[in-house]
Queue: 3 jobs
Job 1
Amino acid sequence: FLLLLLFPLVFFSQTYPFREGFEGLPSTQVPQGWGGTMKVLLDHGLNDSKGLAARVSSAVTVDSAITPLIGPLTSASSFSFYYRIIDQNIYPSTPTDLDVGDQIEIMISTDSTNYHLIELIDMNNHTPSFNFVKKKIIIPQYADSAVYFKILCQYGNGSSFYADFDTIVVADDVQLSVEDISIENDIVYGVGAGSFLVQAGDEYTGCMDFAVTPDQLRDELEALLSIGTVFVEERIRFDNATRYRDLHVFFEGLSSNI
């Protein structure tokens, strides 16, 4: 007799675009189809919903998550997510002030073995907050490739902490809304006609003719909207190992990439 044992098989093929908000996934488990040890936890996402959480301390110094295979990407692809870092003690009472060695690495791989760093969050660029912050990384160099993304959270010193993530999206880069400019950016600089530049902390680029507040820029863009279509794109780029966050505005057939 030939005995056939039938087991349910789950296949995870590459997909694009990709979006995961974790709401439909079981709590306290690694997301199905993902690698690593980070788990879905209730109250660790946006609006106290479910999120993907890393838990690191002097006892457990590394926690990570690896996405399923995603792609093929395009020349306009971006990787975006919301994150926050909160002390483990009486969670979520205290935003974490990162110490030496505390960091989050965002990495990408085409073969699931060799990963390359595309974003680093550490004590030099992280601002402690209860609120989630959105990060977006433009990755045109991986066009036509299917890739894996790894989130690697490391403990160095100081307080044990959770690193919470939500709404992970890999898709063609979408334009920023006018409201996003006002909410997310502190100072916006205007450079000539048809182009604007965002200053993010001490990082900026381009020649500045005059400075305007985010609300003033929003008013300017709303005026332009009455004339024609306005597209706003945020892009992250590297120049001589310096990371820049640029804002590009296109309208009425004109464009300027600052």
Job 2
Amino acid sequence: YSFLSKHKGLIALLLIFSSLAAGLEGVGIAVIFPILGDATGSFIKGGPKILNLFSGFFEGTSLQSRLQIGALAILLITFLRGVCIYVNIALAARLKNIVIKDFRMRCINQMMRVGFEYFNRQRGSDFQLMIDGYTNSTVGTIVNLIATAVPMLLTIVVLLVLLTAISLPLMLIAFGLVFLITLILNKLSKNIMHFSQQVIKVSYSFNSCVFDVISGMKLIRLFGQEPVMTKIFEKRVDDFNKMDYRVTTLTGMVVPLFEL
């Protein structure tokens, strides 16, 4: 929280553009609804007021005119929503850079106050690997939460409101599905966080192995330990690939569940 409290304005802008993108999703549905009709192009009247906000634009028009106006409106809404999403991504990237700098500066300030005996037990490369690993983990969590999860959740809220206006039973069914998907996503997020931490650890082990091979190449060749170090290196690579594959496949399940 201390990393984010200094950037409330930037986070507020992220939430604003996320809300605009979600709202435009609902506006798009409200524009399409009056165009719906039977095969003869009869105009839909009545129904939920929230879905007939734009009915006045289509009064007394033919089906072809409604389709043309609706297509132009959808194109405009899609463009504006794309702009909101782009700005949201740009703001998230800005927040990411700020948090990375704050985190790394805090790390270096802590290192400046650590006793010399600690440095005697640690190699210089270990500090670099720890800072990089924990920075990526922290930034990934923040960016995914604010720049990805929040817009999706806001879109879900908008769609649930529209479903409530259309049919309460349909909304209850959708809400039940959302609740079930939320439980699955909660489990997935915990697994993703767990395996992400494992990726950091095996990446740290892999990079340490690379450093050991480079720094100790003369001794390795002197004692003929090339095959041993090659096997150790291969194991580190396999461990990293295994954990990275788990994280990738688990993360790949998140988007389809949100699309539901």
Job 3
Amino acid sequence: VTMIKDPASPYANKELCPGFVRIVMRWTSPDGLTLSEPEIVLTPDEQDSPATQCYYLSILPLEPYTVGIFGNFNIQNQRLLMEPVWSRDHRHWSRTTRQPLFDEDYVTAVCINDIVLEADGTVTLYYSASNTDHNGKIREGDVAENKLYKAQVPRRKFFGRKLEGDVTLVSPAIRFTGKNPKIYVSEGMELTCEWQDMFSTNAQNVEVQINGDVAEVKLAGKIDLTSTGYLHITGKGIVYDAEFPAHAVAGSDRGTHI
């Protein structure tokens, strides 16, 4: 891809909109023609530097959340980087990591496709990255580059919880149906599971068999059929998802994930 700047088109040395702050707003419409009043959904907050501005927000619904890619723009150093965010209602966005997805030293401007894609169990992100600042300037001695990239991650590994130390992840109440639950984890994870019956305060260790990034919890032969209780998951690594067979969740007639 070749990009040419029109020399007759002037631009500011630093900030294009001095004195203004970029924010993200949301409109809704029943027909695509009539828009609601705008609602502010993303602004710099007290944890950001005064130079932080909100440049874009691309979203992808992935039950039970909606994930977003937030364009975090620093007007001081003119770096535009991607930050992952998530929401339950498209209105309140959590910036859990506050870290860029890709923070290579040479990358100073990142722009993404308007849509994050999901197909065949894979989430795909197309984006461009350059070593120039937002106004096209480069560091002395560098040659300007602008490239297109594709990043992909399995759907099951888009969300995860890091376990270490005394952190314990507790499952929803599940009814054992004879089929073992599966937990999707990071490679090389150390994992320990305990089963606690709903009507007991005691927990018992259960065997876990890990094959690559899938851990099977060996409840069969360990607890009674139709027993209802909780899995207590501890270890060192990342738990991405857990899958239970049909009728596993107490009061439910379908499988679920946590």
